[in-house]
Design brief:
The protein is built from four helices and nine strands; from the N terminus they run αββαββββαβαββ. With about 270 residues, the protein is α+β, with helices and mostly antiparallel strands. The protein has a four-stranded antiparallel beta sheet with strand order 3-6-2-7. A hairpin with a 5-residue loop joins strand 4 and strand 5. The longest helix has 30 residues.
Amino acid sequence: MEKHLKSYFIIGTVVFALLLGFWYVKTYARSVPPMRTFSVQGEGKVVAIPDVALISFSVLTEGGKDLAALQKENTEKGNKIIAFIKKSGVESKDIQTESYTITPRYENYTCGIRILESGMLRPDGEEVCPPPAIVGYSVYQQISVKVRDLGAAGAIVSGVVTEGANNVSGPNFTIDEPEKLQNEARAKAVANARTKARILARAGGFRLGKPVSIYEGYATPYPMRYALESAKADGIGGDMEVALAPTFEPGSEDIRASVSMTYEIR
């Protein structure tokens, strides 16, 4: 009997403690007014000059069924172009092979066609249509280059064409290490939000409290693309004469940051 009474006493004590804690929390919540806050948006911008030009070029070699000869020709052109790029001051770490592909080329045969009296077309059953046959191969390699000396970008674009590149894309101007500039834009955005908060506090007739939260959202710039115009109507390649190197202007990019800050109202 005493054992049961002791158990009831412990259970009653626990229940009483829980009820007491609930009552205290509820009473405290009623006595403390809710925190009053307001939010502001801040914007920051840094104008940056791109310091890197990204150039992509490819070498396409097409021919017959002698695949080894095609690979040799394509490799020699690619190596010659890479050697020229390195000679122009570009380091090996800034040269990357993006892809190297070999694809067959097919010849498709046209079967005989009969026109029926109804006007419909039907393959001539007397002629056997042979399957497509491989008549040659295409060897393609694409290489990307990061040019840090922007003054040399035009000469490099013109030079890779002279050395045998069939297609050139770029330059795309960008910033090699944008994080430092992004941090500057963030700092400006926070300062802008703080200024807005102070103005609103004075206009609203209340004291500005401490910031209670901050949220960031920003957009990085997109580089501009510039196309290389060929001096030959039938394409560009290694057989063309040395062309005048184009002049590229990197322009500028806006690096932006935005923040949303919530302040306490006192």
